[in-house]
Structure formats: structure tokens, C-alpha cells
Amino acid sequence: MSGIAGMKVSTRLALGVGSLIAAGVVIAATAVVQMNSMSTGLRELTDERMVKVAQFTEFKDNLATVARHVRNVIISNDPAVQETEKKRIAELRAADNQLLAELDRTLVVPQSRELLKRIQDHRGPYNAALDEAMATAMGGWKTEAGALLTTRVLPRQNILFKAVEDSRALQKTLSEELTANTVKAMQQAIAIMVALAVLMAVIGVGVGWAISRHLRRALGAEPGELATVVGLVAEGDLSSRPALQAGDSSSAMAAVARMQEALTRMVSGVRQSADGVATASAQIAQGNQDLSGRTEQQASALEQTSATMEQLNATVRQNADSARQANQLALSASGVAERGGEVVGRVVDTMKGINDSSRRIADIISVIDGIAFQTNILALNAAVEAARAGEQGRGFAVVAGEVRNLAQRSAEAAREIKSLITASVERVEQGSELVGQAGETMTEVVRAIQRVTDIVGEISSASQEQSSGVAQVGEAITQMDQATQQNAALVEESAAAAESLRVQARQMVQAVSVFHLEADGVRGG
């Protein structure tokens, strides 16, 4: 029963109906078999036995008619009547031939075959005796013909008629037996079908009881009670609780009870959510109104900021132009300073050359001074030697004196030139130092100008970037202005949506109010 309890309702109904159908099919099959048997018997009774009885009856009637026509031929003296009767006799004999041929083809029972053979054996002599009597009568021998009928025809006729009657009686007996068998089979079929019908009724009652029992367990209540509870739930009445049987947790009524509890929790939650949505939508609507006002203020501020940024952009463009001009001037000054530095460098190089030349001249003067000193000593020595020589050396002494004078004057001149060259070298060294310092100063100036040029270039680049940035900021502010206007439109749409949400929340609350909960009854009480 646990297997049946776990089946679906459709499976149970299918099993119940299937069992009833199976019983019906068995009854129908039995009825068909019995009906076929009875049909076969009736067909044999009607198509064979009764037909054969009729055929033997017809054959006997034809024999009697032939005998009558033969008597008419014997009695009549009219040749035309005799010919007519003979013709009729021939037709009846032909019909009997066909009947015998048909019986010979259809008879299968040995006793019937034996009786048919007797008929065929006695029919020939019987017809020959009739023909002889007719020929005797037609020859004018009426009395002899009558005697033949009595002595030869009648005994043969009795034997033949007896065989025909026995055959007809046998077929009738077989028909009665077949009828009795058919009736018996019909009674058996009726008994079997009644028994099967009773069995089918018992099975139907048992299956119906089992299905009803399982359906009662599956539903948990009567269908009317379940329909009432479901109808109340459909109308929104969740306050009543269905009565469940002890331990019932899997029936439809138990499922409805669980559904009712779930619906109660859900409806309570939906009510709370709807109330919360209504409150939140009202707050959203108020917040959207505040946001709309702030968005309008922001849009106004952005418009002012956009105008200020346009002015700032113009100022930055002017600064960028001035920075480019300053950069160009700084580049020019840097070029001039570089060229001045080059000139100072060449002057330093020239001063170095002059200083070197002055030093070489001083060295040469020192050499001349040394030569003058040596010449003076030589002249002095020559004067001494001339004084020793006396008169011979007087002229040489004069020359030595002149040479000494020239040497002294040369030494003095060399000393003066040396002092001048020394002073000049000192001045040249001082000039070289000053020129070097001027070169270093010019180098530092060039470097400073280059740094100024770099700084002015950076200022120019920064000014251009600043101008580009200010332009981008202006565009961004314009986009922010557009976005703010769009936000304002969205805020209006959001306000409309919040209002719609509030209306829908109120409608949801009204829709959920259709459900009646136990808490509602408590509050109402």
C-alpha cells in the first residue's frame, strides 16, 4: 500500500480505470469467443443442417411429384398431356440430380453419407420402374402399367422414401443437437459473463474504495471542504484556519494550510513594504523638490562660473601671447649674449697672446741688458788695457769709452723698456684677469639668459597649457551646465516617478487590504 500511496492521483485513477477496462476487455473477449462459437453453431444450423433438411424435404417432394406425374401419364389417354407430364418429370429429375450432387458435396457425417449412398443406389431402379410403367401405359397397356406400379414401383418407392426420410430425420436430429449445444454454450457464456460482470463490479467497488480512500488521504478533507477553504483564500480571507487531521502533513489541505500561512506572512510583509514604499516615495518626492532647487542654484552658479572662465581664458591667452613675446626677446638676448661671450673669449685669447708677447719681449730686453752689461765690462776692460798701453791705446780707449757709454745708455734704455714692459705685462695680466672675469661674467650672463629663456619658454608652454586647460575647464563647465540642466530635467522626471510610485504604493496598500488576516480580526475586535 505504500507504493500505491506514493502514486500520483492520475496514476491511481489510471490503475482503477485500467483494471475496470481490463475486466471489461476480458468480459468482451469472453463474449466474443462465446458469440463466435454460437455464431458458428447457428451458421452451421442455418447454413448446413436446416439447408440439408430443406434439401431432403425438397428431394422427397420432387419424388412424390414425379410419382404423381407418372400416374397422370398412365391414367391419361391424351398424348399431348402425356408429353407434358413427361417433360415435367424430366425437369424434376434434373432438379433432384442437382440436389443429390449438392448433398454429396456438403455432407460429411459418415451416417449421412451412408444414407445418401442408399438413396443414390435405390433411386436408379426406382426411376427405371417408373419409366417402364409409363412406357407400358403409353403402349396401351393401362392395366399392366397399374400392376407395375403396385408390384415394382411402390416397393422401391417405399425403400427410397424411407432412406430420404431417414436422411431428413438425421439432419433434423443433428440440427436439434447443434441447437442444444448452442443453447448450452449460450447459457455458459451468460454464466461466464455474469460471473465476470460480478467480478468487474467487485473490482470496481474495491478500486473505487481504494481510490476514494487514497484521494481522501491525499486531499485531507472532502472535496467540498477543500473547495470552501480554497474559495476563502481566493477571496482574500486568510483569517480562518482549515481543520487538519492528526499527523496530516502531506495532503492537499495541509498544503493549503501551509500556503495560507505563507500568504499571511507574505501579505503582512507586502503591507509593511507598501507602507514603507509609500513613506519612502513621499520622502523621495520631498528630496527631489529640494534637489531641484539646489540644481537650479547650481545651474545659475555654473553660468556665472562659465562667464568668469571665459574672462580668465581671455586673460590667460593674453599672458600666453606676452610669454611668447618674452620668450622671443629672451631668445634674442640669449643670442646677443652668446655672441658677446664669444667676442669676450676672443679678447681673452688676444690678451693672453699680448701677455705672452710681452713676456717674450721682457726676456729679450733682459738678454739685451745682459749684453749691454757684458759690453760695458768689456769696454771697461778695454779702457783699462788702453790706459796701460798709453799713447798707443788712447784711440782704443776713446772707442772703448764710447762703447762703454753706448753700453750704459743701452743698459739704461733696456732697464726703462724692461720697466715699461714689466708695467705693460702687469697691466696686460690685470687686463687678462679682468677680461677673464668679464668672460666668466658673460658666460654666467649667457647661462642666466639661457635659464631665463628656458624659464620664459616654460612659462610660455605653461601659459599655452594653462590656456588649453582653461579652455577645457570652460568646456567642462559648459558640459557641467548641460548636465546640470539635464539633471534638473531628470529631477523633475524623478519627482513625477516618485509621485507615481507613491500613488502605486497607495494602490498596493488598497489591493493588499483585500486580504483579511487574523491580526485584522484581533485589531477589529
UniProtKB/TrEMBL annotation:
The chain crosses the membrane at residues 189-211. The keyword Membrane applies. It comes from the Bacteria. One of its GO terms (biological process) is chemotaxis. Its main location: membrane. Residues 273-502 form the Methyl-accepting transducer domain. One of its GO terms (cellular component) is plasma membrane. InterPro entries: Chemotax_Me-accpt_rcpt, HlyB_4HB_MCP, MCP_chemotaxis, MCPsignal_dom, YvaQ-like_sensor. One of its GO terms (molecular function) is transmembrane signaling receptor activity. Pfam families: 4HB_MCP_1, MCPsignal. Keywords: Membrane, Methylation, Transducer, Transmembrane, Transmembrane helix. SMART domains: MA. Gene3D superfamilies: Methyl-accepting chemotaxis protein. It is found in: Membrane. Belongs to the methyl-accepting chemotaxis (MCP) protein family. PANTHER family: METHYL-ACCEPTING CHEMOTAXIS PROTEIN I-RELATED, PROTEIN ICFG. This is Methyl-accepting chemotaxis protein.
